[in-house]
Every structure is written in C-alpha cells, then in structure tokens.
UniProtKB/TrEMBL annotation:
Gene3D superfamilies: Ribonuclease E inhibitor RraA/RraA-like. Belongs to the class II aldolase/RraA-like family. Homotrimer. Keywords: Lyase, Metal-binding. Its cofactor is a divalent metal cation. It comes from Phycicoccus sonneratiae. SUPFAM superfamilies: RraA-like. This is 4-hydroxy-4-methyl-2-oxoglutarate aldolase. CDD domains: RraA_family.
Length: 159
C-alpha cells in the first residue's frame, strides 16, 4: 500500500478492533506526514548508538519504533541519523522520546514522530535491545507487525 492510499481513520473504520490505536500524542517532525511499513524495534534510554546502527542497515520500507521510555532529556535521533535512514530506505521512525535538528528533519523524505525535541546529544554506548516487542500508548509494537501513521495518529496490527 503506498502512503497515499490510506488514512488511519478510514483504516480504523474498516478494520476496527483488529488494529491497535496508539493513545500517545506524538508530534510530526519529518518531511512525510503519512507513512507505513513493517515494524522493527529498539529499546534504549538516553543512548542512540543502537538507533544509529539499525538505521544504517537496509530499511526496505520498514518503520523503526524506538522506545526511549518517554524521556525528553536527550535526543535519540538527529538529522545525520535520519539522513542515513533515508539513504537506506526506511519509511519512518517513531520515537517515544526526543529528537533534535528539527528544521533539517522536516526537509527529509522520512516520516518522523516523536514526543518532543531537545538539542542535547545522547550517550553512544550501545546499551539497549533490538527487535524485541516494546509497548507504550496502549499498543504492543511487535517486530514484523504493520504500522500506519498519519496526521490523526498511528495504528498497528495486533500481535
């Protein structure tokens, strides 16, 4: 399904409770407001080394969901890592935490949702887990499930 072929409201009307609706209120920072794809996950806290590593791999239209614990104390992604995501074919990134370089993010052809922004860099120690289920906003984000995001919010297939 191309990104122009859906709205989350229409998807929910059609599929109802077979989809999970995320209650977390994200802000859109990317140059693409509507995106979808299979989920990959990272769980980390104030350390974006794993985010950088994953987004440097072939994205193949996937969406990276980053559970940063809702922390706004430092950014988990900026323009350089987001640029790598674009170059490697990722459709979008959803960050339960902060981003930075928001003007530059808005110029990239990438869906980016985050809770807020902070210019502070995060640690680069590589602490965290990847491709394990993460949860926030009443949704379980399981690797391989499909995520759809637009101006109304985001939906995810149930595990």
């Amino acid at each position: 399904m191309s990104t122009e072929d859906f709205t989350t409201a229409d998807l929910y009307d059609e599929h109802g409770e077979t989809l999970q609706s995320c209650s977390t209120q994200f802000r859109s920072y990317g140059g693409v407001a509507r995106f979808s794809g299979p989920i990959s996950t990272v769980h980390c806290h104030r350390d974006n080394a794993l985010v950088k590593t994953v987004l440097a791999e072939p994205g193949e239209g996937r969406v990276l969901v980053v559970d940063g614990g809702g922390s706004l104390e430092s950014a988990l992604m900026g323009d350089l890592i987001a640029g790598s995501a674009v170059a490697n074919g990722w459709a979008g990134v959803v960050i339960h935490g902060a981003v930075r370089d928001v003007v530059a993010l808005g110029e990239l052809p990438l869906g980016v949702l985050a809770l807020g922004s902070n210019p502070r860099k995060s640690a680069k120690d590589g602490v965290g887990e990847r491709d394990e289920p993460v949860g926030f906003g009443g949704v379980e984000f399981v690797p391989g499930a499909t995520l759809w995001a637009d101006e109304d919010g985001l939906l995810v297939t149930r595990p």
